[in-house]
């Protein structure tokens, strides 16, 4: 495959867009549907990243890629899902304030463990040696193929989120998010619904973390940064927390705008890419969250189309 | 005025008054410190090194208990206090003790500005509690990064002579740290007495308990709320100056401390404002003790975060409710 026309930086920029889109879709299920404000997205993503990296680099597997990748990715997904289950249980009886502290605390624990367990994770120095589970010869071809595979995974997450809106489980999540007391009074198990949602979405966040590890080919403590949570949250709020397409539109208007359009196509002064632009990017994301929630809390795409959807699914009421 | 049951939460550890518990704990600490070297080092270093944590938690608790808002952007009040102080120190050559109070006051003013420009405006537009928290998160991120364009990307340090070292129970402590501890004691006493004993304090408590009833009784909510935000900002700003003098100043200074502050406020808040002070102090001592024992401050933080989250789970929703008025 001749990819000379394609800039390597552009591939990485597109990968970030797709990755954050996936995280945004998962945050949509947590925040938009169930009203669980997860401020520790980077923690679940980081569990996946580090579980994958450690399993890949520190275990002497009797088989090579792609089986090694598949097994390690499965370990990463299960580890993140288990973390989601534990954190979900921890915050199940708490209000929004407690949820913030619980999820933020979990993310902090992940960062501390990744930093202190140097023998496993490489600590602050990081750990190199990860690679693509295939060999086509050229690095650019590897990265482009990985971008396509990640896009396929995120497309599956999109389909899942889309389907959830239309399933009894999804409707229960919406009910729990809208009025938990009412849902409980109707005999629904709000806790079980939340735990299931947290487990599945956290596992998927872990899988995206593992896929990130393959793309960057190393474990770096700096990657466990609040920027991951911020990007997913800002994009979703901009697009609309209650809509499946909210994350897609939001990421295109935020991450794609900064990491592709501005970074590659605007004539910005030399040196801005290293310091000023990343700092401005985060400041703008923060400002976008504030302004959107004050002036248009439902996001650009507006409210969930429940009545229209229900009519389509069940006929006129 | 707050019902008597709610007033109890301000000053009691269960059925024992919080001041009595504080004095008892203090006596135990002094006896242990006098008898054993390890405990002396742990208590003295823990109490003095982490005095800014107590001060910051006290300010945050004021805001949280009296307005019900879990304001993530409070972290940037701490950062701004440090930035203002280091800026005055570096630009005009003013000494640490000279810049301390102005920096705290400026942070208090900025705290009020964020309330008027963002939170009051959002409340007027009937933004929900969850959205308010997310707004404060966004504001925190905006300020963390926006401040780098104002104060520069690099870390900044105070240009001050090394502080005097004073021996306490045989442990050398810098004068800055002792001043921080004294500030915690003075501010908590003043603010606590102000809230409990003055008519303004009564208005604050009344507003926190029932805003509608307080307004109907003649309390002017805007003036009182501004006062709360200012005092909270002052505490945060002063804490920031002490944090900055102990290390260096950069835009993530406040947010790096926020989780412990939140946990101290949520857990200590069960027993009121004095509970926040006692739990904050105990947290500082525990941080130092574990760090001295295992040689890594991150392990200490890990142990404390896990322990606090355990309390959070055990107490459940009651905990966050109790932390508010």
What would you note in describing this structure?
The complex is a heterodimer of chains A (317) and B (325). Chain A has a domain at 8-225. The mean pLDDT of chain A is 88. In chain A, 72% of the residues lie in helices and 1% in strands. Chain A has a two-stranded antiparallel ribbon. Chain A has 317 residues and is mainly α. Chain B has 325 residues and is mainly alpha-helical. Chain B has a single domain, classed as ABC transporter involved in vitamin B12 uptake, BtuC (Orthogonal Bundle). In chain B, strands 1-2 form a two-stranded antiparallel sheet. The longest helix of chain B is centred in the middle third of the chain and has 29 residues, at 96-124. Chain B is globular and about 55 Å long. The chains are: A mainly alpha (317), B mainly alpha (325). Chains A and B meet through helix 4, helix 10 and helix 13 of A and helix 6, helix 7, helix 12, helix 14 and helix 15 of B.
List keywords for this structure.
heterodimer, A: mainly alpha, two-stranded antiparallel sheet, globular, B: 325 residues, mainly alpha, ABC transporter involved in vitamin B12 uptake, BtuC, 79% helix
